[in-house]
TrEMBL record:
Its EC number is 2.1.2.2. This is Phosphoribosylglycinamide formyltransferase. GO terms for biological process: 'de novo' IMP biosynthetic process. GO terms for molecular function: phosphoribosylglycinamide formyltransferase activity.
Amino acid sequence: MTASQPLAVLALASGSGTLVQSILDHAGDDYRVVGLIADRDCPAIERARRVGMPARVVELGGDRDEWNERLGAAIDEAGADLVVSAGFMRVIGPALVERLRGRLINTHPALLPSYPGAHAVRDALADGATVTGTTVHHVDAGVDTGAVIAQRVVPVEPGDDEATLHERIKKAERALIVEVIRAWPRPGRGEN
């Protein structure tokens, strides 16, 4: 790949696919989306298929090691420069994380290291936080413990509940992930 070619991005998702949709909507000269992998049949798969993007499901079945092997093979087939966990609600095994080191990133609905895990918005509200936000970070062997790449602050407003706060975080998250992908170093342009 030359520096003038767009970055090849593969998305991983488990749910509605709003992050995937934002990534798709902003693809262009900086990056192209080469596929989507989900861990189950979900609306993200349909979003990808509607625009003719390769999409497949690698369901969690059998043991975790075997699932990670199938997931790794599917990622390899896509030929991506960058793998974006965009609402992918599975923990990827340490061997696959290590193999993808430096090119596997995740979005998280909190300002890490605060509120890691699957219930970040609920946890921020329960803690009485006045601000929270979104983080894009490298994936490592822990849960939401990788090095932070970028963050965006979202204030907690009076009367917020989990749904209203999460929706505002998602809006910030969709913009932030596109900014990170657009700025991602291409081979030949430096290392990340």
